[in-house]
Design brief:
With about 120 residues, the protein is of the alpha+beta class. Helix content is about 25%, strand content about 25%.
Length: about 120
């Protein structure tokens, strides 16, 4: 069986195979497993337009704070600290850093682990 291929607009180097499977994202995996490397606490400093991230050990000790204005810079600074040891935690980090950034610049209320209200 020969597969039909087509070029994707704007991505000339990408070829899409016909009939690729599509996965609909629905529902949330409610399981939560603490990262054995530690956890993060997010807080906004609206006065200085800074995102503050506390790094905590698994036994609940705050051992460092990282401050920044740029989500990507924060993400990499946190990764360097070795507090992310699994993919779920890395995905969560990206979500919370970006959410904090949006809240900081739009005035929306930021609550860690909750979606922004629009």
């Amino acid at each position: 069986m020969t597969k039909k291929l087509r070029k994707l607009d704007g991505f000339e180097q990408i070829v899409e195979e016909e009939g690729i499977p599509v996965v609909e994202a629905s529902g949330k995996d409610k399981r939560w497993i603490q990262d054995p490397a530690g956890y993060l606490l997010f807080k906004l400093d609206r006065e200085n337009k800074v995102i503050r991230v506390g790094i905590c050990t698994p036994d609940h000790r705050l051992v460092k704070e990282i401050r920044g204005k740029d989500p990507e810079e924060l993400y990499y600074a946190i990764l360097k600290e070795g507090v992310i040891s699994n993919l779920d935690h890395a995905a969560y980090l990206g979500l919370e850093v970006e959410k904090a950034f949006v809240a900081l610049h739009t005035g929306k209320e930021f609550v860690q682990c909750k979606q922004l209200e629009f």
